[in-house]
Design goal:
Length: about 80
């Protein structure tokens, strides 16, 4: 699969290219295990770095992670309904 050029591509042209090379598109997909690991490590790493400046802000980041997860789950459920 050739690399994308810097010029603008129409939506139809991009769709045709994606349909011609399904193997290339499939290779871009991240596995569930890697995605769940990234979702766990990212906020924890951000909170650890933020804790150097303010422990209250680090706790706030960790609390909002749970709220964000619930909100995105509810939005996904509503979109599938």
């Amino acid at each position: 699969m050739k690399g994308w050029s810097n010029r603008a591509t129409s939506a139809g042209g991009a769709t045709v290219r994606l349909r011609r090379h399904p193997g290339g598109v499939a290779s871009l997909v991240v596995g569930h295990r890697a995605a769940s690991l990234a979702m766990a490590v990212g906020p924890l790493l951000a909170a650890a770095v933020l804790a150097v400046v303010s422990w209250q802000a680090a706790l706030l980041v960790l609390d909002f992670q749970r709220i964000e997860t619930l909100a995105l789950s509810a939005a996904g459920t509503a979109m599938n309904a």
